[in-house]
């Protein structure tokens, strides 16, 4: 009878022991695979989410005369700079080598105006379709401006002016319709009047000039320093600044998640190895009589070693396959209940084969000590039991 056939028959004769061992393997592999799938998907999704939550690169004109500030960035409102930025400059950002790493580019113009001849306020000209992508946390009452005579008010500015959605205001002797009011967000934006970029350029006689450009770059696909250097190359007359704090926050968050998952995985592997080793020891111990008979009829120690190792190989393979399948299913199933981030959990041949190979290797390593001890059983002593 072939070695594989003997091993399979032996497993079938001891179904309860074999099923218990497989259950341990399946549980360990399923938990480890679940943690790994969540770790990998969360790292990618959280990284991409951070990449899309606001700008991480600021492009401004090379100027020494700064008289305005927006979002912590010093800017110039004067139209006398030789190296000022123009509206078309934002398109040049998409000419860099790593343009696929650019999520959003939003040009802006900053100025100051007097509303209704009484309230001085910061004016920000933007493309609302870009700003909505750049700042997905924005919430507002009403709707975003669509026409050239429509504006959006920051929360506190609207309170000071006592204006609401549907009202009007006068700016530079022109009447504007208030289509929306931003909800309070605790930043400079609460004090700002937002209007279309082209409108602000027109009423303030800025021509094509803009103040700065905000860029949201995908840090997961290209390092930020490389992107900023490429932007400097296409816009040599500008200052390009990478906001390292946002990148560091992204990196720290992903690393903490990975550390937690790795520690959890290591603990589970250690515990599983110990339990598998103890289970295999009992599995082999209960077969002392069988092993003694095999030794008594002339089977060599190497043959018994190979037979027990084959059983461990079969059990490890079954446990790895079932554990990987259940782990992937479980990770996909629990994600909506535990994490409010859309994660992509998929079956992977590479990951599946790796899981099976790792499970088989772990089972064999944990089984070596009891198997080696089994090959040293004295057939005479075993037959006395």
TrEMBL record:
This is ABC transporter permease. Residues 264-379 form the ABC3 transporter permease C-terminal domain. The chain crosses the membrane at residues 260-281, 302-326, 346-369. It comes from Desulfuribacillus stibiiarsenatis. Residues 22-216 form the MacB-like periplasmic core domain. Belongs to the ABC-4 integral membrane protein family. It is found in: Cell membrane. Pfam families: FtsX, MacB_PCD. It is a multi-pass membrane protein. GO terms for cellular component: plasma membrane. One of its GO terms (molecular function) is transmembrane transporter activity. Keywords: Cell membrane, Membrane, Transmembrane, Transmembrane helix.
């Amino acid at each position: 009878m072939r070695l594989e056939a003997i091993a399979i028959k032996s497993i079938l004769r001891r179904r309860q022991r074999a099923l218990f061992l497989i259950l341990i393997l399946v549980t360990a592999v399923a938990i480890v695979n679940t943690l790994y799938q969540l770790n990998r998907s969360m790292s990618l999704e959280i990284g991409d989410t951070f990449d899309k939550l606001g700008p991480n690169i600021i492009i401004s004109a090379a100027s020494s005369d700064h008289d305005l500030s927006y979002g912590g960035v010093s800017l110039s409102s004067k139209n006398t700079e030789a190296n000022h930025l123009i509206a078309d400059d934002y398109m040049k950002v998409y000419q860099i080598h790593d343009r696929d790493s650019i999520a959003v580019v939003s040009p802006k113009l900053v100025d100051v105006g007097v509303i209704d001849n009484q309230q001085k306020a910061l004016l920000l000209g933007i493309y609302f379709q870009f700003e909505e992508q750049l700042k997905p946390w924005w919430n507002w009452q009403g709707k975003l401006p669509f026409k050239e005579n429509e504006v959006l008010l920051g929360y506190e500015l609207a309170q000071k002016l006592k204006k609401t959605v549907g009202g009007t205001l006068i700016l530079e002797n022109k009447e504007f319709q208030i289509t929306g009011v931003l909800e309070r967000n605790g930043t400079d934006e609460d004090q700002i009047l937002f209007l279309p970029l082209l409108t602000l350029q027109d009423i303030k006689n800025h021509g094509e000039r803009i103040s700065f450009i905000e860029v949201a770059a995908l840090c997961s696909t290209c390092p930020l320093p490389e992107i900023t250097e490429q932007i400097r190359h296409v816009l040599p007359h500008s200052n390009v600044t990478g906001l390292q704090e946002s990148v560091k926050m992204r990196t720290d968050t992903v690393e903490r998640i990975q550390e937690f998952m790795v520690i959890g995985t290591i603990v589970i592997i250690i515990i599983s190895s110990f339990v598998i080793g103890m289970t295999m020891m009992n599995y082999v111990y209960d077969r002392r009589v069988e092993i003694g008979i095999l030794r008594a009829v002339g089977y060599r120690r190497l043959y018994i070693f190979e037979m027990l190792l084959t059983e461990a190989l079969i059990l490890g393979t079954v446990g790895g396959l079932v554990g990987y399948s259940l782990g992937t299913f479980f990770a996909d199933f629990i994600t909506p209940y535990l994490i409010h981030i859309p994660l992509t959990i998929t079956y992977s041949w590479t990951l599946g084969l790796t899981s099976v190979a790792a499970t088989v290797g772990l089972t064999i390593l944990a089984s070596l000590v009891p198997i080696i001890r089994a090959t040293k059983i004295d057939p005479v002593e075993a037959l006395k039991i």
